[in-house]
Amino acid sequence: MSEVDRPGPGEELNRTGTETVPRQAASVIVVRGAADHLELLLVKRNPAARFMGGAWVFPGGAVDAHEGEGDQAHRVAAVRELDEEAGIAGVDPSTLVKYSRWITPAEVKIRFDTHFFLAPLPDDAEAVVDGEEIVDHGWFTPQGALDAHGAGEILLVFPTIKHLEQFSAFPTADSLVAHAAAHDVVPVQPRIVLSGETARVLLPGDEGYDAARDRGTGPI
Fold it and tell me: Is the dihedral of CA 106, 99, 119, 64 positive or negative?
């Protein structure tokens, strides 16, 4: 169980009693290091942005209507967002390796059903941000990013933190991609439980998660 003292930037708790239908979204975790080491790309959202302003995230965003539905739409959206946010083009959607699927807690107003994919950095590609929606980027080891967050040097949000914690178990980019290719993706939907001024984020398997799920979404 992890505890946070506030939602992520722009994440408002839903006090209407009506659950928001999550938008379909996709994100790309770009890795480099092959068989030698593991680094991943994080990009910094503009601090002035209403949603997730200032957070360091994996490139990604919502699926556009013209991109269709299903797995192929998520792959196309993931590649498009990677180009738009990080300037990395030419990735074949079919080569993306699905790693995870996270659904924003029902207790949050703005929700996404996000499919996360892994992609090795293409040869000769370099990340370039537009300076508007995305204002900075960096290559981090998983533990290096977590340490930077702990030191207050970068801002990470809950799903990114949990992914980085998982990635810390892999010594190389190749080992992470191979693991992802061999396992089935199970959707993860955290729950938020308020206790005084503290918002507790519960994951499946945490004590109290099932009780929070059974209560459903209501005024909080």
Answer: negative
Distance CA 100, CA 180 (A): 9
Phi and psi for 93 in degrees, rounded to 5?
Answer: -55, -35
Q: What is the pLDDT of residue 197?
A: 65
Predicted confidence (pLDDT) at residue 214 exceeds the cutoff of 70 = no
What separation in angstroms does the CA of 153 have from each of 92, 98, 147, 149? 33, 29, 9, 6
The model's pLDDT over 52-73, given as tens digits with 9 standing for 90+, comes to 899 999 999 999 999 989 999 9
For tokens 């892994």, what's the residue?
Answer: 118
Distance from C-alpha of 161 to C-alpha of 101, rounded to nearest angstrom: 14
Both tokens assigned to 3: 């505890």
Q: What's CA 184's distance to the chain center, in Å?
A: 18
**What pairing do the DSSP bridges indicate for beta strands 2-4 and 23-32?**
unpaired
Question: Among all chains, which residue has been given the structure tokens 């959707």?
Answer: 187
How crowded is residue 5: how many other Cβ atoms within 10 Å of its Cβ?
Answer: 7
Q: What confidence category does residue 201 fall into, taking pLDDT thresholds of 50, 70 and 90? A: confident
Compute CA distances 151 → 6, 148, 156, whole Å: 18, 5, 11
Contact 109, 151 (CB under 8 A): no
User: What rounded mean pLDDT belongs to the chain?
Assistant: 89
Cβ pair 104, 111 in contact under 8 A: yes
Is 114 within 8 Å of 25 (Cβ atoms)? yes
Of 161, 151, 156, residue with least CA distance to 44: 156
